[in-house]
Structures are given as structure tokens and as C-alpha cells.
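Supplementary Methods. Inverse-folding protocol.

Structures were first reduced to a C-alpha cell string of length 141. This string, shown here, constituted the complete conditioning input.
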């Protein structure tokens, strides 16, 4: 009987495992992409950031500027993702075992995880931006 039950649920377990792997890969790709965009923004705006620091901006404000820009992108992505996922839960409800098609706990947990991942991805470029040497930037210009 155990082997019969294992064989009958193998397809569902495989689909769930495959979706989990794809979800983790999507989170990694999203964080690497956001990190790349924010690092590029810091590189492009390096002279502006250096001038801001030279004029008296605190490093905390510079970090807040970069993190704020990244989190705006991330929150927009999470909001669009929630809207799209609400529309796609009906077709996927056949492989969601033990979870309702619209589960608030799952949606909340995934949203929080993505926001934390986005914060970590924007934190490193923000720290680099706050450590820009204003004299070096002004000499370069």
C-alpha cells in the first residue's frame, strides 16, 4: 500500500519540488539583477554623490537615497507580482496540495522574503556609494 501511495503522489511531489527550485532560482536572479542595476546607478551617479558628500550630505543620507531607489523598484515588482499571481492561482490550484489557491500567509511570506532579499541586494551598493571619496571625484571631474 505504501508503494501505491508513493507512486500516486510522485507527480504532484515532483511538480512541487520543481516549482520550489524555480522559485529559489527566480529569487536569486531577482537579487542579482537588482544588485547589478543599483551598482550601475551608483557608478553612473558617482560624481553627483561625491558632490553631495562634498557639500555636506551625511553618508547615512546617501545610503538612504540608494536604498530608497532600490526599494521603490522592489516594491513595485512585488506589487505587480502579487497582482499577477492572484490571476494565475486558478490554473495552478490542481497542484497546490494542502494550500488554498489564495492563501494570505503564503502571499505575505513570499512578499516579505522578496523585500528582504531586495534590501540586502541594495544595501551593498548603498554602502559603496556612501564611501565615495569626494576629493577623488572632484579631481576626476
Amino acid at each position: 500500500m505504501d508503494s501505491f501511495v508513493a507512486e500516486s503522489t510522485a507527480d504532484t511531489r515532483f511538480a512541487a519540488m520543481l516549482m520550489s527550485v524555480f522559485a529559489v532560482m527566480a529569487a536569486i536572479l531577482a537579487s542579482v539583477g537588482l544588485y547589478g542595476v543599483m551598482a550601475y546607478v551608483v557608478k553612473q551617479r558617482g560624481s553627483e554623490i561625491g558632490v553631495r558628500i562634498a557639500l555636506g550630505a551625511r553618508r547615512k543620507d546617501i545610503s538612504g537615497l540608494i536604498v530608497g531607489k532600490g526599494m521603490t523598484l522592489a516594491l513595485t515588482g512585488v506589487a505587480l507580482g502579487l497582482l499577477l499571481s492572484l490571476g494565475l492561482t486558478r490554473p495552478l490550484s490542481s497542484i497546490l496540495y494542502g494550500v488554498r489557491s489564495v492563501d494570505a500567509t503564503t502571499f505575505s511570506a513570499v512578499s516579505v522574503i522578496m523585500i528582504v532579499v531586495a534590501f540586502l541586494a541594495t544595501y551593498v551598493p548603498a554602502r559603496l556609494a556612501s564611501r565615495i571619496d569626494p576629493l577623488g571625484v572632484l579631481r576626476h571631474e
